[in-house]
Amino acid sequence: MTQVDVSLTDYGLAAECLCFAYLIARFRTRTSSLPVVFIVFFFSIAIAAAAGGTVHGFFLDESSLGYRILWPFTLIVMGITALSGVHIGTALHFSRSTAVYINRIALAVFAIYLAIVLFIRTDFLIAILDYLPALVFVGGAFLLSHRRQKKPAFLIGFLGVCTMLFAAAAQQAKLGIDPRYFDHNALYHVLQAIALFMVFLAARETSKAGEFIN
Q: Which is nearest to 10 in space by CA: 59, 43, 50, 42?
């Protein structure tokens, strides 16, 4: 294994998000439907983290077959995460007709992102630029939910999204604890794990309360 710190934190993030997806699936009640978009959100992060961890651990050589397959796959799945984030925001605060319109725009953006990853460039910055608007959208949805219902879980979710944005900025600035034993990517994963736990608390509240409008 080449980048042990990055791979292990990636695998830890994958395990965490799989657990979150499973727990949300158990929150179905008779008064609310299963929030599939939250499951897709966490599950896609888990898949991307597992694939990314494998790349960092075993396929760092960009000429290797593993890298050429797994790295674009990782970025594509991150695009699905962004797409599901938009669906979360629209489900929280828009009517069905408006949500469908916004989601179609998000789908068109995803198609453009997919073309860029497959045919133009595959650096991590592209993925960050793709999911940044989605994160802001989800964060705003959580904040509006908190203002409307005064439930602490939604405020925690908003702070979790803010932490995710900070983590992305720190990763791009290459801020780490130690360049050899715990670099900027490993720190990014740890911050993401903390942030996603906060988002999970908001997701759990939403799932239990039947917060979806459409």
A: 50
